[in-house]
Backbone:
């Protein structure tokens, strides 16, 4: 038995469960969903709220999910998932997964209440947030997960971009005492797969927050999605971690960070940022990492950094 | 053996739900709906009702969850009222568009502002266009019976439309009456298990609740409309079958009382019909040809039943706990539309009453009939009147 729950990419099924959709080239969100469903398999019920992935995946009569799937209301991802889980339980269905794929706005803003309710009930659902850091489907407006300084159509560059930092969804979810939560990134696919595989086995609610760049909204070449994701990790602006049995575990400490400009300069949304904005971002990052290094548990054999094999 | 229990409207609904064997129940508490869901929570906890009871954190989530459960083939129930009903408004449209045969109880209650926990029907009537079948119970017995009927109507594969069962807040939800409780076997023989080939299925996966472009969208809406129109016959047939099976028949989409020879007819909804019926009897004793038409179903609208009331020289009064601000009561607008198509010229008046839970007395109803009588005889009467207005008027 594979006790570390890692999934080897070469063992992944060739079957596709999310394909033929209309997502932009280089879309981080659609990659996360495609890979997660390969781990979860065909006996899945997927719920997607109004947003990018439902807009590109369910245009009648072209349905892009090969598993059972439905669009929920924008605030209703978690509540609809909970209903599926309750219905499936009442009907005696066996060996299935109820999984939600919601964006950052659908998770951290309008869907937060329903998600909180589902975690409170500890419903057996997997909730995956693909975080592209703004309302992309509606034309790049600021969400609660837009980072400080980022330009969106509602936080224009003339006003120096977003004036607020990202809500900390990972720790908000953890504060509920959820059985399993993790951060992940399309910049480290083995780690993402391992976490989805782990969520499969959780008896209650699990939450995976996936960093998922958006070339259209962030202003970069679609070929650079993975590179930018890796730079976010290397710069310390995103991190890979897990919350389990009441404890936070860091999966990887990059040690010395790459320069922030090395990350920020790859994207048009940060073009306007002056030295003061960068300094603020850096100060907040350092504060966060001091806390992580002081309080969280460091990587161990159960919470390891699944390295990419080149 | 059929039993007789002393139950409130809320409890009668809980009994109707239990007998209908739902798989999943979700509800968020709001006065005056609470007793219905408290009873259901007790029934599921004790095991006398084998269902999943979900403690959701809002009405929006309650109905969203019921859509998820319905999508996998579960029979579902939820209950709301007033602020909670309008809070779930997004999901109401979603559930009807998705053709999920959910059954919900709504305790009719005034909408804020000003805050009021008391009954009027502005909550449900302001949502006439959300695509739900809307029925209104007069008493506790009908409340129980409507739940059983509602599942059979909603789950009919020609219909697949959710049903909202409305009970007047407090006046019906909290009033105790003797209620006949049919046996489980008797209900099982009337209401078959829920089977829907359009549900999600692990062996044959489906994508539901999708988008459609302008090329197809209108056809989906047309199908929804057709199903609602077809529901008229299904509701009539269901009530007839219910009458044959259980011995209680309510009249289909409307319940008429002494309308055939009536000169003056009051059309109304819900529990106030009981008071109107008493006044009709009193007036009949005095030789006044009064009648009552109680609309049981506002959507689909009983247009042919209303049109059948059209007669030259007759006056009709629509008594409703509702106002569409800047115009008239919604029930009145609907009734007028049905009557107008008959080309019979009649006097039709609108009486707005009971907003925010104000009592409607027999004296108020006598006055309504006297206004109708005056209108009948060519007298001048205001088209839209607020009954029993107080100091601010």
Residues:
């Amino acid at each position: 038995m594979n006790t570390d729950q890692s999934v080897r990419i070469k063992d992944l099924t060739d079957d596709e469960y999310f394909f033929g959709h209309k997502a932009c080239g280089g879309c981080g969100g659609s990659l996360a969903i495609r890979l997660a469903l390969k781990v979860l398999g065909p006996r899945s019920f997927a719920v997607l709220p109004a947003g990018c992935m439902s807009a590109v995946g369910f245009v009648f009569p072209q349905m892009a999910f090969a598993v059972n799937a439905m669009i929920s209301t924008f605030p209703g991802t978690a509540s609809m998932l909970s209903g599926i889980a309750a219905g499936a339980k009442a009907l005696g269905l066996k060996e299935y997964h109820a999984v939600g794929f919601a964006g950052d706005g659908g998770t951290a803003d309008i869907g937060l209440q329903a998600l909180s309710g589902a975690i409170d009930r500890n419903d057996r659902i997997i909730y995956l947030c693909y975080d592209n850091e703004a309302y992309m489907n509606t034309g790049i407006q600021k969400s609660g997960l837009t980072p400080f300084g980022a330009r969106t159509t509602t936080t224009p560059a003339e006003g120096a971009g977003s004036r607020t930092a990202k809500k900390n969804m990972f720790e908000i979810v953890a504060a509920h005492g959820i059985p399993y939560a993790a951060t992940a990134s399309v910049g480290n696919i083995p780690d993402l797969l391992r976490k989805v595989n782990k969520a499969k086995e959780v008896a209650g609610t699990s939450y995976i927050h996936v960093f998922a760049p958006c070339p259209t909204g962030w202003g970069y070449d679609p070929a650079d999605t993975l590179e930018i994701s890796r730079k976010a990790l290397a710069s310390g602006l995103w991190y890979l971690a897990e919350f389990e049995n009441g404890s936070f575990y860091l999966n990887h400490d990059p040690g010395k960070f790459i320069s922030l400009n090395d990350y920020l300069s790859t994207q048009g949304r940060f073009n306007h940022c002056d030295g003061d904005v960068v300094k603020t971002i850096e100060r907040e990052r350092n504060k966060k990492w001091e806390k992580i290094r002081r309080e969280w548990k460091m990587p161990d054999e159960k919470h390891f950094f699944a390295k990419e094999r080149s | 053996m059929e039993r007789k229990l002393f139950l409130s409207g809320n409890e009668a609904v809980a009994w109707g739900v239990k007998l209908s064997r739902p798989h999943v129940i979700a509800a968020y508490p709001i006065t005056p709906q609470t007793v219905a869901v408290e009873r259901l929570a007790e029934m599921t906890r004790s095991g006398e009702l084998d269902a999943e009871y979900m403690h959701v954190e809002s009405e929006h989530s309650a109905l969203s969850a019921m859509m998820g459960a319905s999508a996998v083939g579960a029979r579902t129930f939820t209950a709301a009222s007033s602020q909670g009903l309008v809070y779930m408004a997004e999901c109401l449209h979603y559930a009807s568009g998705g053709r999920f045969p959910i059954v919900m109880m709504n305790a009719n209650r005034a909408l804020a502002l000003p805050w009021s926990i008391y009954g009027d029907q502005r909550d449900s009537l302001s949502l006439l266009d959300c695509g739900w079948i809307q029925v209104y119970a007069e008493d506790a017995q009908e409340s129980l019976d409507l739940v059983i009927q509602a599942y059979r109507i909603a789950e009919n594969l020609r219909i697949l439309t959710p049903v909202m069962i409305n009970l007047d807040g407090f006046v019906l939800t909290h009033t105790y009456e003797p209620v006949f409780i049919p046996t489980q076997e008797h209900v099982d023989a009337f209401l078959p298990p829920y089977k829907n080939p359009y549900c999600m299925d692990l062996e044959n996966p489906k994508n539901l609740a999708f988008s459609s472009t302008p090329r197809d969208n209108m056809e989906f809406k047309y199908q929804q409309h057709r199903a609602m129109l077809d529901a008229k016959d299904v509701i009539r047939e269901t009530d007839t079958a219910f009458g044959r099976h259980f011995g209680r028949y309510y009249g289909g989409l409307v319940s008429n009382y002494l309308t055939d020879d009536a000169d003056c007819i009051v059309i109304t909804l819900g529990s106030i019909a009981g008071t109107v019926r008493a006044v009709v009897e009193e007036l009949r004793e005095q030789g006044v040809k009064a009648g009552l038409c109680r609309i049981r179903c506002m959507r689909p609208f009983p247009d042919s039943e209303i049109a059948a009331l059209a007669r030259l020289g007759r006056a009709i009064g629509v008594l409703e706990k509702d106002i569409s601000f800047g115009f008239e009561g919604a029930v009145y607008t609907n009734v007028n539309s049905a009557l107008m198509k008959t080309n019979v010229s009649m006097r039709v008046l609108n009486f707005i009453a009971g907003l925010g839970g104000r009592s409607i007395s027999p004296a108020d109803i006598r006055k309504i009939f006297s206004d109708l009588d005056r209108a009948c005889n060519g007298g001048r009467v205001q088209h839209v009147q607020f009954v029993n207005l107080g100091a601010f008027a």
About this structure: Chain B has a mean pLDDT of 97. Chain B has 13 helices and 16 strands. Chain B has two domains: 3-246, 254-386.
